[in-house]
Amino acid sequence: MEKKYWQSIEEYKEQKKGTDVQKDPLPEFSVEGLDESEIKGKSSRRDFLKMLGFSVSAVALVSSCQTPVRKAIPFLTQPEELVPGIPNFYASTFFDGNDYCSILVKTRENRPIKIEGNDMSPLSRGGTSARVQASVLNLYDDARLKNPYKDGAETDWATIDKEVKEQLEALGLSGRKVVLITSTVISPTTKKLINEFTAKYPNVEWVTYDTISYEAIRKAHELNFGKAVIPDYNFEKAKVVVGFNADYMGTWLDPVSFTKQFSKNRKILKGNTEMSRLYQYESRLSLTGSNTDYRYGIKPSDEATVLLNLYNEIAKATGMSTYNVNSSPVDISKAALDLLENKGSSLVVSGTNNLNIQLIVNAINNALENYGTTLCIGNPINLKQGNESAMAQVVSEMNNGKVDGLLLYNVNPVYDYYNAKSFAEGLKKVGFTLSFADTKDETAELCQYIAPDHNYLESWNDAEPVKGELSIVQPAIRPIFNTRQFQDSLMKWTGISGDFSDYLENNWKGILGEDGFASAWNNVKHNGVYSLPKEDMQESPVFNEQKLSAAAGGDGLELVLYEKIAMGTGKYANNPWLLEMPDPITTATWDNYVCVPVKYAEQEGLKHEDVVKINGELELPVLVQPGQPDGTISIALGYGRTAAGKAGNDVGKNVFYLMNVSNGYADVAGAEVTLEKVAGKTYELALTQMHHTMEGRPIARETTLQEYIKNPYSGNEEHLKDEKNNVTLYTKVDYDGIQWGMTIDLTSCTGCGNCIIACQAENNVPVIGKDQVRRRRIMHWMRIDRYFSDNIDNPKVYHMPVMCQHCDNAPCENVCPVAATNHSDEGLNQMAYNRCIGTRYCINNCPYKVRRFNWYEFVNNNNFDYNMNSELGKLVLNPDVIVRQRGVVEKCSLCVQRLQAKKLEAKRENRPLRDGEVQTACSQSCPTDAIQFGNLKDEKSVVVSNNKEERMYHLMEQLHTLPSTSYLTKIVNKEA
Amino acid sequence: MILSVSVVKNHLRYKRFLLLSGIFTLLLFSQISFGQSAEAETNFAVCKACHTIGGGQLVGPDLQGITERRDEAWIIKFVQNSQALIEAGDAVAIQVFEENSKIPMPPNNLTDDQVRDILLYIENGGKVAASEVVEVETEETVASQETVQAETPAEAVSGRKDMRNMQITFVVLLILMLISLFDLFVTKILKEKWIHYIIILTALYIGGEVLFVEATSLGRQQYYQPDQPVWFSHKVHAGQNQIDCMYCHFTADKSMHAGIPPVAVCMNCHNQVKSGKITGESEIAKVTEAYANKKPIEWIKVHNVPDHVYFNHAQHVEVGKVDCEECHGAVEEMDEIVQVEDLSMGWCIDCHRTKEVQFANNKFYEQYTRMHEKLISGEKVKVTVADMGGEDCQRCHY
Prior knowledge:
Chain A is α/β, with parallel strands linked by helices. Among the domains of chain A are: about 5-25 and about 690-725 and about 735-970, Alpha-Beta Plaits; about 215-380, 3-Layer(aba) Sandwich (Dimethylsulfoxide Reductase, domain 2); about 555-685, Barwin-like endoglucanases (Beta Barrel), CATH 2.40.40.20. In chain A, the strands form 13 sheets. In chain A, strands 7-6-18-17-16-8-9 form a 7-stranded mixed β-sheet, with helices on both faces. Chain A has a 7-stranded mixed β-sheet with strand order 30-22-27-24-26-25-31. A 4-stranded parallel β-sheet of chain A has the order 13-12-11-14. In chain A, strand 25 (about 610-615) and strand 26 form a beta hairpin. Chain B is mostly helical. Chain B has 4 domains: about 40-125, Cytochrome c-like domain (Cytochrome Bc1 Complex, Chain D, domain 2); about 155-210; about 220-340, no CATH class; about 345-400, no CATH class. Chain B has 18 helices and 1 strand. Chain B has helices spanning about 1-35, 40-50, 65-70, 70-80, 80-85, 90-100, 110-125, 130-150, 155-185, 195-215, 235-240, 245-250, 265-270, 280-295, 315-320, 325-330, 345-355, 370-375, and one strand at about 300. The two termini of chain B are about 35 Å apart. Chains A and B meet through helix 3, strand 2 and helix 27 of A and helix 1, helix 13, strand 1, helix 15 and helix 18 of B.
């Protein structure tokens, strides 16, 4: 029996009513929002004459122009490693205070144009996240400061150095307190430097501040094991993972590494039938929850109760004492059974910053003997070192006039501190304030001095995200502006000579040893990563039991704040790629909104796009979200910036002040709020969800592991039928040598959206703005369709990447009147932009709706004032891919520029292509390796072996389009 | 409108023609002022780049008294091809080579007699023997004129001429057509109306063709020859001095761009060579100045393809083993570079349809098993670029 999938609430209701197939599908092109004249299509004779006159003179003018003189300016002396036209890759590290990723920076003619994952990293293993992919655009952000500032006016570094030194010395002599607030610093060398700085100025106190704190995990481990650490989680060794509000696939702690790890256990390929099982208990529909085998919706205030019940179950089975607790509102016996069965190879994690909850989690993991296997205290994770009480202390001291100097590095508390108002007021009472921010952000605006830091792609640094796993940050471009690295500034003021790269090198001499340092150091810079020799990890940590408790849950409406996959905590709010990236769950772009449960919306009469007031003051639009647990609402953090830059200012609302602060821990979830409808007021949201309805057909196919073992074709029975039905009079196209193909494993795909941004960066895909997205014109070459099925209160969720399927029997090709789209000798469905006349017949005839039309010129157009309308922003464009003009259709080319480049490389090296060497942007960056790419004519390739799986099917194969892209049925490790 | 286009284009061509003829005249004069002497003097111009007669060491040794120091037969061999002599292990040649910082003397296409002439010229202290001057004069003038003609390849000149003729034809026909129309409806002088019809139809046909040809060449730059910031002669470098293309354009086999040589590459030789035989010191000084002042030379790009075309030199030069001249023409005969081919898509595709790929020589093509079978069975005789997908849109447009 095929499942009935639905994409939106409206569609769900339609199905409920018994209309299986939507009778009136929403039009691809909508007239809502168009001008009157546009709708009527009225144009007078006068208009015609005007147009005629204009076009005639324009043509005359254009064609009479002289050939533009193009210059070719060579180097004076060409650096040996730089060849114009050939990319260079530099290993580096992305770390922005929150997320870590080891990367390769692709540079062309010395300018970074793309970020790729570093295969050599034992942590991120070549994976990236959407934010990592998009970070290259931040380098070319117009909002970046071009010079240092003093009192709001540009100044020079000599003035800054002189005055800051004077200030620091004067404050030091009088013993006045200066505070240096930084984000988490994971660089051992920078730490050493900061310590030297504070040694020189002993009146400086160093405080670490995280926007979203994980301090409770550290504190709980201090109480239980005597070490205030975040243990290293190993999802790869865990056969059962039970998560509590921990979005470890999306935003929690180190999502890229965790995704790489857990997905290794969920590959049902080549006869393997072993699969880990994932449980998620959560208070909103997170990316992780949408991918786990079992998901339960709970209220934040019930989390402790549920956890303690789980603990009791396990304690009972292992003969330990239990605690008195209310009964759990959701089933935990199944999870408990699975955990007990996999003692020592299971994992319980919670993302809640609440000491009590983290103590229960530790107790469960300890009872399951997971310490030493899936959790490692000896080699802890160094991310998230924020100290909340110290920060709170500083803010109160600032307000009491006890702080006379403030240095802020990589933090923006005026925007993202939960008590931002108090921070901003305190800041005004501090005499000497300096920010190292690279843009004039909310905090820097209020500071006396701004000493702008380099972008990370211009910097030297190192990183130690997990103890013993080092990686290097090296510049891929000379500083574009008159900025200076934070570390260099500190060195100047501490009186250390040289620059930070020397300092770094000297420090690494201590790590690598003086002997043969030069070559070892080169090796580190080449690999980007360096693992210290592993110490003996035979740890048997002594567990100090703590008393556990769980208060009864509240009755009020509880608010859950969350980081969006794209926007995070709002640091990159001015990045148009991220602003326009559809959220994997809501598919919304460009805004934050209140997700309300379906039932609650029905009760209160709330509809999609209605405006509501939170706590009687904050107005936000409503998005009715299936899977949002009863009694909760959720709002994304990271929006509502006022000083981010032209793209990011005043997009959405700032909700950091709604954090739930209790016992000194600020948590994103649990604040009780009130919600009331603002009568008659609506706010438009730009969702990409409604314009790709697939009308109840078996698109995303699914089966359970049990069924699959019984019958490998289960869930995919249609495929056999379609194979039989698909007969044709024509001979099948047969390619010689190369036929490019792609396979997408729906079991692995988490829908994280990293591939969308990778594709956007690689293929110069324009950003078109909220209004155009609302008109269903989003330009992304690939999208991730999200389907819901079954229960609307706790639906099953399917993520399905869809890009051009490169059909051998392509419907688009037959209808093009000018043969602008046709088939290549290598199985590519090609699109010749310069031949396209924009009839859009192909778009109408494509069953997959993957073709995009350039409704406007998106380059050098003030109406689309994003990166392509800025001289600086355009530096990110890939020179191997053309920027499409207005009026032509575009679509996924399977990264043909990469295919051509790798073929050339093989030809030059006089060898056949190797499987896996040719990667598209999406397949290369995929953190779960769900997308595989290769040559279908190479019998040994991964794509061929994937296509031999019984799970393989083509999207809408009943249409006999013969796509080169295939999908593998999603397998859920769930008992029926 | 279309008329205005052609007029403007015509005007431009006219300007270009004026400019070119100006250059020709100038060159003619400069050549003539040198050309008053015997052939030996012209031939020695090549040598003068590196040698003096009694002026001391330059790149190569001072040639005064060379005939006394060395045996004539040896000199002839050395002048014609010094490297061959060195490779053959001639002790004297090797010694000379090493004494002069191992800078090889380029081979020269001179006959034995021509070399002997030069030697006489040297013995004479760099003066032409009076008896010979008159005898050679007329011949030399002709020769120098020929060289001037060859400055731009003959094909380019005639190509431009063709276009001018077409413009004149177009205008003449247009006038004829207007006259006959006027006569047909207003003056009615000629009673035989068929004459009008024939004139109008012919004018329409030919005019249409001219328009078509002109329109297709819009945006193309065949015979484009901009003035470069430095009067650099490929004829001297690639032609007379036989410097390999890839010595300067050293990324042509690696990258999509052939690469304009960095000034440092020029300085490899022009550290020593400070005076050119055509332009003297003025042009080379620009190069050395650029190097000293660290200001790169802003060359004007001659061969341009539209933005939507991806062209890769490495694919053609290294993999396809296409000679540079096949697309760039006889560069070794051009002083300032001119675009010989129109670089149109038709021109690209024509080559792709006929050019053989390195099918047997490159292991990359091993995976094309069916094509190999066809070759063995004799169904195919050769594998062209088009057989390997060379006509696909997305080989060049993406």
